[in-house]
Amino acid sequence: MELKELKLIFEEKYGQGGDIRSYFSPGRVNLIGEHTDYNGGHVFPCALTIGTFGIARKRDDRKIRFYSANIEKVGVIECSLDDMTNKQSYHWANYPLGVVWAFEQKGMKLDTGFDMAIWGNIPNGSGLSSSASLEVLTGVILRDMYGFDDKTMVDLALLGQFSENNFNGCNCGIMDQFAVAMGQKDCAIFLDTADLSYEYAKISLPNAKIVITNSKVKHSLVDSAYNDRRNECAKALEELQTVVDIKELGELDNEAFEANKAAIKDEIRLKRAKHAVAENQRTIEAVDALKNNNITRFGELMNASHVSLRDDYEVSCEEVDVLVDLAWSIPGVIGSRITGGGFGGCTVSIVENYAVDNFKATIGPAYKEKTGYDAEFYVVDIGDGARRL
Ligand code: GLA
């Protein structure tokens, strides 16, 4: 869909005239550094050129109305500034409404409501952050339309995370919203989640492409299992703190972890903490390898990340493991791993240009045969963060 079309839909639903504005917010893919962002570790995501488009206009009363051209049958969802609670009947609109709520919680009251229409091309539930995209989109709209000009893009990322944690009940880290807000064309973001310091690293792959493969599977335990992992890491940290002076798992390197791990009294927690520590170290090393143009090493670290997520963190699943195993068997695949929260969703692979067609032609049918699902492939470009158009 073109922006022009979305604007026509907006006018059809809400009427013409007034100060109608257009916005875009990307999805993201994480190259390496998984489940480290709530352990004070590093992540290395990038924004994509696919994402969510939004059209919005202020109203004169206190109504807020949302419409998604992706889910036409839900129709216009009407909310009010006077009743900002999460309701099942609000459907997807709980995400943007949560951001309005978060703004108000942080002292930014809206004088009037607004109308908003969206359309996105991020496959839902695929682990490419369609919800963070929508949250940051809403943040950019509110900042722009209501004059909260002192809010930085990092502030908008934090407001998005705050809304997701406290309005929508998922205890996620900051990676997704940060990547969506702060993305930069052709760069990944090397973010230290301990203090939110970051640097951009150019992703220059003249001979290769980033290929995302969607398993089309999303296991229902996602949110509860995610929160379980967080709790296991928190408990392991407490145990480690009895023997070593740290605030977060990300402060340990592999050696220090080995030296102190006996403090962790449970095998499962030991595996979780081992992943959190090792994945952080891998991410630091991977960015270093990239800076030295050692893309082969970068790929090896991606593969090791998958093994650790599969065996120690246990957030992969059969279907995704099939995708990754197939990818590893194809010549020209530099690295391949699960990306995002896990339990389904997508893999991210770096594939030599010459091998991309073979990658799709081999994995598609073999995956279908083994699992019954039709995988989808996206050869993606790295784009800029959320913005007014
Ligand atoms: C989800 C969360 C992120 C991060 C990843 C795992 O995408 O929203 O904060 O924890 O999982 O790396």
Give a description of the structure.
The chain is of the alpha+beta class and 389 residues long. 41% of the residues lie in helices and 23% in strands. It contains eleven helices and 13 strands. The strands form three sheets. Strands 5-4-6-3-1-13 form a six-stranded mixed sheet, with helices on both faces. Helix 6 packs across helix 8 and helix 10 runs antiparallel to helix 11. The longest helix has 25 residues. It is globular and about 60 Å long. It starts with a helix and ends with a strand.
What is the compact description of this entry?
The protein is an alpha+beta fold.
Features of this protein?
single chain, 389 residues, alpha+beta, four-stranded antiparallel β-sheet, 13 strands, 41% helix, globular, binds alpha-D-galactopyranose
List the helices and strands and how they pair.
Elements: H1 3-14, E1 21-30, E2 42-43, E3 45-58, E4 63-68, E5 77-80, H2 94-105, E6 114-120, H3 130-146, H4 153-166, H5 175-182, E7 187-192, E8 197-202, E9 208-218, H6 222-240, H7 254-260, H8 267-291, H9 295-311, H10 318-328, E10 333-339, E11 344-352, H11 356-371, E12 376-380, E13 387-388
Parallel strand pairs: 4-6
Antiparallel strand pairs: 1-3, 1-13, 2-7, 3-6, 4-5, 7-8, 9-11, 9-12, 10-11
Query: Could you tell me how far the N terminus lies from the C terminus, measured between alpha carbons in angstroms?
Result: 16 Å
Instruction: Average the pLDDT over all residues and give the rounded result.
Output: 97
Strand content: 15-25%
Poorly predicted runs? none
Largest sheet composition: 6 strands, mixed
Helix content: 40-55%
Assembly type: single chain
Radius of gyration: 21 Å
Query: Numbering strands along the chain, what is their spatial order in the largest sheet?
Result: 5-4-6-3-1-13
Annotation, overall tally of beta strands: 13
Number of helices: 11
Helix and strand sequence: HEEEEEHEHHHEEEHHHHHEEHEE
User: What shape does the CA trace take?
Assistant: globular
Give every kind of bound small molecule, once each: alpha-D-galactopyranose
Helix/strand-derived class? alpha+beta
